[in-house]
Design goal:
Two copies of one chain form a homodimer. Chain A is of the alpha/beta class and about 325 residues long. The first copy, chain A, folds into two domains: about 220 residues, Rossmann fold, CATH 3.40.50; about 90 residues, Rossmann fold (3-Layer(aba) Sandwich), CATH 3.40.50.1100. Helices cover about 45% and strands about 15% of the residues of chain A. In chain A, strands 1-2-10-7-8-9 form a six-stranded mixed β-sheet, with helices on both faces. In chain A, helix 8 crosses helix 9 and helix 12 packs across helix 14. Chain A is globular and about 55 Å long. The termini of chain A are far apart. The interface between A and B is medium-sized, with 29 and 29 residues. Chains A, B: It comes from Salipiger profundus.
């Protein structure tokens, strides 16, 4: 992986992905005790940065291969990104999803034109189903993060951050990134390495599901003990990726971890002061910036709000938090 | 008022106001039965388009006059726009506000550096207080809509709409604008007249508070029977302005009016599909686009979401509406 791959992805995404705004509010600056800039990837197509990686991967395929279609395993933001990017390319998308996935997510993915293939988590093998479908139809599997063209697509967010932060007068800052498998974090880190010498990527995760933070601290890949039971489930993955971890290890500062309540409070504060909708997993970076000031140095911090796909019931919980 | 005044305002706003994004979602297109583009002015500084007019008016003042400061009557979005624009110019701002205004609005305005002067609605004369303060301190009154430089500032939103819609391939559409006194509507209408010959501005209001719709239909200024009791209070004004009405009469298509429930549902749909926060009065244009399809012609419609300053309790009501 090098910067030329991200730059090539940026050219393919031009005119298709949104250049999301870099927002700010004096009220957030005051809470954080330093200047806060927020990259609003919740405003990306399909409501999360995942559209970037999906578009990058699909647009990079050989046209004959691409025409047969793509397949992904996901019940979340990756599924929607793939579905929308595939539809815009005029190719079929198959999303293999647990049969107990929320109806809204199934409907949302189908609404973007994808075929949803449900499987029973207890009795069926997801990978076997995917391999069979891929073999029968010639579909290409697009992995959610540990895939070079996906990392390159997410890295385009980092290119935008460098440019937009400079426009705002910020060239030196920690760039805190909501981190699951590390696709967005490693992509942004590569972009900062090339163009933002005094910008440093740092992963943010939910407490208790901070596999990347621990992996970085301990110098090798560590797993999460559990994979569910946190409101930030969307960014909980078993462990950092084989491709993403070495990039993060080389380039990233220490990880940060926040509580569920802190993520919910950050969601309320984005509602109040930025007028954007953050999902819990998309709010952990801002939560770290606001509520972990002693773990950050410097006059400015940049955070991703990486997605906004949250159920109304969960958002209502954030609204009900103490201000 | 002519377009050169809007263009001059645009030059003064450049680098200070945000160029807010024009958003869309295939799910909204499906509900509306046509393509829907949403100008997200809730992402403007201070959470509403009012910052544009405030900046325009303050930046247009003679420097010696400006240095003495500005004064405004408002407990809402205009107050915050004036406060933020005055602070950025390094000048004092005095906001005269009813003493029973919500504490959050008082704190928000003070948080932006303005001096809040409360008055008792029952026993004190707001205009007399304002005149006294203005006389004593040499403050300039910035009216909320019936003021040429304010209209010019709001018109910059229309310039952006023309350009962004063309980028999205839309040059022919109704442009539905959330309408109180008509500053935003008339400003946008002037911009469309100059640069979007096949774009037509149309005001949207709450049912029962549709003074502009009735004024346009009946060919003269009509008043609202009441001034409170609607969830969209922020855009309820007594009647169209003396400056704004003739512009709207010359340039605008028929007005549209929506119910409180429709505004709340539109708020939920912007939450679900665009990941932005709309206040009730900021959602009426989108509500009209989604729920009044028979009053609109053409393949595309453009709506402003003009503000996002809504209390968590009210937003929770929108989230609880049937999907």
């Amino acid at each position: 992986m090098d910067i030329s791959r991200i730059e090539a992805a940026a050219r393919r995404l031009d005119g298709h992905a949104r250049r999301t705004p870099l927002l700010s509010s004096p009220f957030l600056d005051e809470i954080a005790g330093r200047r806060v800039l927020v990259k609003a990837e919740c405003l990306q197509h399909t409501g999360s940065f995942k559209f970037r990686g999906a578009w990058s991967a699909i647009s990079a395929l050989d046209p004959d291969v691409r025409a047969k279609g793509v397949i992904a395993f996901s019940s979340g933001n990756h599924a929607q990104g793939i579905a929308a990017a595939a539809r815009a390319h005029g190719i079929p998308a198959v999303i293999v999803m647990p049969s107990d996935a929320p109806a809204a997510k199934v409907a949302g993915t189908r609404g973007l034109g994808a075929e949803v293939v449900p499987y029973d988590r207890a009795t069926e093998d997801r990978d076997a189903i995917g391999a069979r479908l891929a073999g029968e139809r010639g579909l290409t599997l697009i992995k959610p993060f540990d895939e070079p063209e996906v990392i390159a697509g997410q890295g385009t967010c980092g290119l935008e951050i460098v440019g937009q932060a400079a426009e705002a007068g910020v060239t030196e800052a920690d760039v805190i990134v909501c981190c699951g498998g590390g696709g967005l974090t490693s992509g942004i880190a590569l972009a900062l390495e090339a163009y933002g010498p005094d910008l440093r990527a740092r992963p943010a995760e939910p407490q208790g599901f901070d596999d990347v933070r621990r992996s970085l601290a301990e110098g090798g890949i560590r797993r999460n003990a559990a994979l569910s039971g946190n409101i930030c489930d969307a960014i909980v993955t078993p462990q950092p990726g084989d491709l993403t971890f070495p990039i993060m290890q080389r380039l990233c500062g220490p990880g940060l971890a926040v509580s569920e309540d802190e993520a919910l409070r950050a969601m309320q504060l984005t509602f109040r002061h930025l007028k954007i909708v953050a999902e819990p997993g998309g709010a952990v970076a801002l939560a770290a910036a606001l509520f972990r000031p002693n773990e950050i140095t410097g006059d400015a911090v940049i955070c991703t709000v990486s997605g906004g796909n949250v159920d109304p019931e969960v958002f209502a919980r954030a609204l009900a938090m103490p201000a």
